[in-house]
Amino acid sequence: MSNNEGHFIIPVFIPHQGCPHKCIFCNQSAITGVRQPFPMSPNDLLKHVQKYLEYKKEKRKTTEIAFFGGNFLGLKRDRIDSMLKEANLFVKSGQVDGIRFSTRPDTIDTARLDFINAFPVTTVELGVQSMDDRILSKSKRGHTSADTDKAFFLLKNCGLKTGLQMMVGLPGDDGSHSIDTAEKLARLCPDYIRIYPTIVLSGSPLAEWYKSGAYTPLPLEESINLVKEIYCIFRKKNIRVIRMGLQASKDLDNGAEVLAGPYHPAFGHLVLSSLFLDMAKAELKNRKDIHEHAVIKVHPRNISRMQGLNKSNIPILKKEFNLNALEIIGDSNLTEENLCIHPKPTGFLKPILKKPTKKRHN
Predict the structure, then answer these.
(1) What Å distances lie between residue 299 and 252, 267, 278, 311, CA to CA?
(2) Do 225 and 274 touch, CB atoms closer than 8 A?
(3) Is 14 within 8 Å of 70 (Cβ atoms)?
(4) Are strands 192-197 and 161-168 parallel, antiparallel or unpaired?
(5) Are 97 and 63 in contact (CB under 8 A)?
């Protein structure tokens, strides 16, 4: 549940660029909201980064330009060179600290890593999605779990920070495969993780599978519970989970692009709210000193998570534990992973007020 408030990311979306084929779940234009089929020119990139730098606040300690939404190392060599050179201008000027990008595991090799070594690349994010080769094949990913293992160790040997993306609910996954993927990725000890539930997006091959009845997406509640279990696997290894669920956007929120599946604009919040509800229930079951009133203390950043979406956790706890009153308050002395429950203090002494004495008139 750690935050990264001091970090400022300037996203540069390159949807579908560098991709050798189309995965069954993919519609990057719908996810990113970027519709241009053509590459961003050096001048466009310059203006784009300058615009984002205007939003940077003083508290931001580090800034990175991030190429997302495509397969960066799958681009042609001259295109990679051009984009990195333009981004590097901002690093040289001191306005940006580094460059990061996302790519496929099968594009990581010694030759490509030697090439990017000339640039201030700090972080590489791998679109792993699954560590089950059967599921990868059904999803038409075009790489294997062995490719992921090889790519990860090549990146770490180069001293690069490495993030991993995984998906739950892919075709052929009954949930146990996602748990197995999470455990295998946790053993790699990446710097961070993103977890995405599979959504049926219009224009994706999966949309046709869904319409024909060949694919049934996970229900929202089941997806939340599965991702919550996976989140705990990474948390036990102190691996940061920086995103759960797709980034909310206008096209996704209005339903224009989502045909089916567990999409919710606050999916990550729902997962963490469910986790805090579980934690509170476990604590209250072990407490014999709490009867009608309870106070739950959490780190201030977690007040809304403990409350639940639309404060839904409060009536659940009150009903299950026969509470007449339940307060949730912030305590900055607590870590973001913990909560503390106390009975509500009773019997406050009221101050005794002396009656005013009447003045005597002579």
Answers:
(1) 31, 20, 17, 17
(2) yes
(3) yes
(4) parallel
(5) yes
Q: Token pair 């970090």 is at which residue?
A: 7
Q: What is the pLDDT of residues 11-61, one digit of tens each?
A: 998 876 767 767 788 765 555 555 554 567 888 899 999 999 988 777 767
Closest among 144, 42, 163 to 101, alpha carbons compared: 163
pLDDT, residue 349, reads 40
**Weakest mean pLDDT among 33-47, 257-271, 298-312:** 33-47
Question: Are the beta carbons of 200 and 30 closer than 8 angstroms?
Answer: no
The CA–CA distances, whole Å, from 41 to 34, 44, 116 equal: 15, 5, 20
Q: Where exactly are the structural domains of the chain? A: 7-265, 283-343
Residue 227 burial (CB count, 10 A): 29
Rg of the chain taking only CA atoms, in angstroms: 25
* pTM score of the predicted model: 0.88
Domain 7-265 top-level CATH class: alpha beta
Please tell me the distance from the alpha carbon of residue 136 to that of residue 165, in angstroms, as a whole number: 13
pLDDT, residue 152, reads 98
